[in-house]
Amino acid sequence: MPYVGIGMQQRGSSLRSHRMVRAYAALLGGVLVSLFLVGLGKMQTDKGVPLPRQESLEEIQDQIGRALQDAIQGENIKTNLRAITREPHQAGTKANERVAKTIEKMYKDAGLQKVHTLTYDVLLSYPDWDRPNTVSIRNRAGRAVFTSKGVSEPILPDEQGAPHAGHQWLAYSAPGTVEGDIVYAHSGTPKDFERLKKMGIDATGKIVMMRYGEGFRGDKVAYAQQHGAAAAILFSDPAEVAKGARDDVYPKSVWMPSEGVQRGSIMKLNGDPLTPLYPAKPGAYKSKTIDEIKEDGIIPSIPALPISYDTAYEILSRMSGRPVPSDWQGNVNVTYRLGPGLRDGYKTVVDVKSSLETRHVHNVVGYLPGQDEEDRYVILGNHFDAWVYGSIDPNSGTAILAEVARAMVETTKNTTWKPARSIMFAAWDAEEYGLLGSTEFVEEFVSQLGSRAVAYLNMDCFAGNFSLNVNTIPSMRDLAIDVAKRIPNHLEEQVHLGRKTLYDTWARAFPGKDGQPDMQIPGGGSDHAGFLTFGGVPVIDFNMVNATRNSYPLYHTLFETPFLNEHLYDKADFAMHRTIGRYWAELARTLADSPVLPINVTRIAEEMGGNYVVELRKTLNTLPANPNLLEAKQQVDFLEKAAAKFLVKAQSFAEHAKHVREALPENPYDQRKLRGVNERIMMTERCFLNPRGAPGAPQNRHVLYSISEKDSYSGKIMAAVYDAIDDYVDSTDKKKAGRMVAEQISIIYHSVHCATNTLKHFF
Known about the structure:
Blueprint: H1 18-25, H2 34-37, H3 57-71, H4 74-84, H5 94-110, E1 113-127, E2 134-138, E3 144-147, H6 157-160, E4 170-171, E5 176-180, E6 182-184, H7 190-198, E7 207-211, H8 217-226, E8 231-235, H9 238-241, E9 264-265, H10 290-295, E10 304-307, H11 309-316, E11 347-352, E12 354-368, E13 373-383, H12 395-414, E14 421-428, H13 436-444, H14 446-452, E15 453-458, E16 467-472, H15 474-484, H16 492-496, H17 502-509, H18 528-533, E17 539-545, H19 562-569, H20 575-593, H21 601-622, H22 630-663, H23 672-686, E18 705-707, E19 715-717, H24 719-730, H25 734-759
Parallel strand pairs: 4-9, 6-7, 7-8, 8-10, 13-14, 13-15, 15-17
Antiparallel strand pairs: 1-12, 2-3, 2-11, 5-11, 12-14, 16-17, 18-19
Helix pairs in contact: 3-12, 3-20, 4-12, 5-12, 12-20, 15-20, 21-22, 22-25, 23-25, 24-25
GO molecular function: carboxypeptidase activity
Keywords: Membrane, Transmembrane, Transmembrane helix
Protein name: Peptidase
């Protein structure tokens, strides 16, 4: 078969016969179906009447895209959401297993093929459902003058009234009861703890209280433990989650009510911590013990719990010590103080009950096979486990993905279109605990993904209804933009302002350089992480967000139930959910059907020479002159020259790829040159994998785009290089540390050299 993937029957009388449809499906681009109807080389009938103009490949693909978009229905997404969010469903529970079976049935009913589950045995964490975690305040006599409930009460009992739904807890917290003095450490970042120390406050043996925001909650607890804390408390400050009037909160608005609490994981690793780098298949050897992962700081050895801002008030209003710096003051209605301790000799007591258990988790996958390159996969993924009901995180995405699957299969039935490459749908389990389901999948199939996966498209959940937001790597940015220009804007007020497409609002909301929307490097907060940082697979992680691009106020709370989606975020018949589905589907279809993969490796070369090397040189030049940095600076010189060669070769390769694409209609049955071009595009991306991983983080194998060691949510460019520079600054052995900087830069150099060689015809 020629490279097609576009067998959709065209509208119009000229393509009504089955013979014509088959002929058109056998051609590509500018090849004319008239050659098959009126004799080879004839462009008109025997009577000299011109044949109708035949549509180009691009026009046909545009028709397919519109048909697919029209097939996605908001009402179906709403039905899916209701079916998935009937009960709280944490990973490893029977309730979540029921959700997995519901999704499996949705995929089978949609018509996906080879639908099945993949099971892993992973370490999970649970509270004591019968005895909630609490924080208490005791007077000098040891009597409790305040004790938190440890449970958020339902506001809409019909949706939120399941037993134990309101429990307030953090997964992987150590159990225990700690009584002591409390210290306020703002957002719990390294800079905050350093500042606290400079103000004369020692966290050793103290209970450290911190706000959510400015980083991953697990990093906050880890930093507190590193500074000697005996326990940790996290709370959501009204400054971030309740910016309106005190009564302008859920269910009147999207702002968090005073009893709301953000749950979450505080493990500092992606994947099962007992089987690092290898899949946690049932019966597989556990290379780590629980004691070892505690010693390594992967899970904390101190108790930690989240509290509401009502409970935070009870603590903050009693704290002693001097007022916090002005930029540390929040919006709980009291003057924040540093501590240590409470007035009148009162003590704070943290009581956490938790357990660690190995349980089964189940990924659900299904396929829409490709008709030309069945062994090439475009992967769409979302997780389905939740901290409570999960109507936004993650099941807004789960419901949309199931509808995209249904709409794609429907489009193949209502037209003659079949995707050229296979499209895989994946529902991941145990993401909330630390990306466990997706990471174990990548670890199991990393070799196959390296040679067969075209791209991974992740949509965890929406976080607002203001604009599209895309996190991706440079080679995928053009695709993200081009597809956004094809998706109609669902916001009527934006359309009235002339912003007719998803792209128009996006470009205006988050402007970046060169007039294009700003797109950040993907971080570690969702299931794309393993595909990119461990597998080297290009990713797009996208969602709809609010104007600040921050998380939504009710994140990981009891109040994420369908009412929130239907009545506060997407009141126009799930138009936003539908738009997300359209964008997701069109990204997948474009990657599946484009003869030449729409992955622009030239963008990597441009960023390398025009940005990354320049910034690296600036960073090194800002450090005090030291002969121990000479080798590192020499490696930057080599890297700069290699980047220039990479850019020249990438540009010439782009011209070659364009020529191959344009020449394909001359012999559409010969895909060898096309396959060769696409192989080199895919393998160029894999050149940036270091099989040894980063120092101290072997799971972070991507040398350009990986996860920051300082913030597990944030992506970082050349993380291993900059971490080595940070270590050099702090090191007393400058010679050894300087050599490590040089080594990490040289690894980038070798990756760039690999990419250049991959794009060549000959070595």
